[in-house]
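Box 3.1 A note on notation
Throughout this textbook, protein chains are presented in two layers. The first layer is the amino acid sequence; the second is a token string describing backbone geometry. Keep the layers aligned when reading.
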Amino acid sequence: MAVYGSHAPLLTLCKVDGTIPFSSSSVVVLVELTKLVLSLFFLLTWDRQLLGVAVSWHHVIPFALSALLYAANNNLVVHMQLFMDPSTYQVLSNLKIVSTALLYSLFLRQRLCMRKWLALFLLMAAGVSYSLGGLQDPEDSSSPSRMQLHITLVGLLLISVYCLISGLSAVYTEAILKTQALPLSLQNLVLYFFGVLLNLIGHFWSSTERGFLEGFSSWVLVIVVSQALNGLIMSVVMKHSSNITRLFVISCSILVNAVLSVMLFNLQLTLLFFVAVLCIGLAVHLYYGVT
């Protein structure tokens, strides 16, 4: 929750004259590389006795598809925002909660009762509410209620594909992690090897004249390390819990995001933030608290 919630404030701290000065694809490559190095470190440190375990191609190939789905989603996030404004993306991207839950229920055969579905829709409502204006700059005369969303037909199609791939990549990866009798550090090593490879190809395929490390600062390095740790932590969550738990972690992270935004940027909490908090509280109670 802390890592997820701190990501947007860290990106804001990286901005120069209101814009991101570095290549997002470079950051993704470095995040994947950091996860690869950390996975190797954990394998050598904690699972050294399993280094001799037999690994065949049928263990490896599924992670290539998983890495391909993640890489496709990372690139889709960048390109689809050409067809919509950032606010629309923030609001509609919450649909991936429903798409992930549907695919989780279908492919992993985890039947969810109506109470749990209601909890997940409340999670989505919390995300939409917060995205619509949970925070407000006191120096900005515009009100969250006046927010105007804009999206083209192509943008609507791309956001639908994004939510589908996001859910599919998460559920497919969970299935691999749970069905293979391999240590998690070894599974991560294979996954992030393909992650580095595919994202490197994507970076140089769409690279501009900007240098690989151009615009980097100490805050960017913090983002790289934090996002790498986030990926490793989420792999533990998916292997030993589920994608539903991951969705709750992501939704609850808006609390961390709000606290940091208020402390660092003097933003104000609005009514929509408290609506989001109420929805999250009800969702947690319905999903985990009611028997």
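The longest strand covers residues 135-136. Residues 1-17+25-45+55-136+150-289 form one domain.
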